[in-house]
């Protein structure tokens, strides 16, 4: 017999990591030519880099909020979006992707360590729970990964 709470945590981790019905971030950015990272497409307000950096920052914010009381999130939306830059160095790009992976691992540990409290509202916030924040990460990532793929298609960089 399996532990239902462990099963839920496993499903949440899989959803965040692999996207289930959605392309995971790692696949969405794989083999993206460096010169396209900061390129904007007419009619869209952001580049692939800005989307990746937005995912990095927003996920970090959610993990920090989920960890303990006292975390102060920045003003929405300005605090969650970086300025447009046209050239994104390998260091900046890889650093953002590594931070996303690192924060996901931090969040997965939190899910596993607090599996008995998944639906219990945090003592801080306005009713958020660890389960809700996990679904938020998965939902938010899927939305913006879809935008990355659309941008890649518009830039003729997606098969």
From TrEMBL:
Signal peptide interval: none
Transmembrane spans: none
Organism superkingdom: Bacteria
Domain DinB-like: 26-148
InterPro entries, sorted: DinB-like, DinB/YfiT-like
Stated name of the protein: DinB family protein
Native source species: Chitinophaga horti
The organism's taxonomic lineage, starting at the top: Bacteria, Pseudomonadati, Bacteroidota, Chitinophagia, Chitinophagales
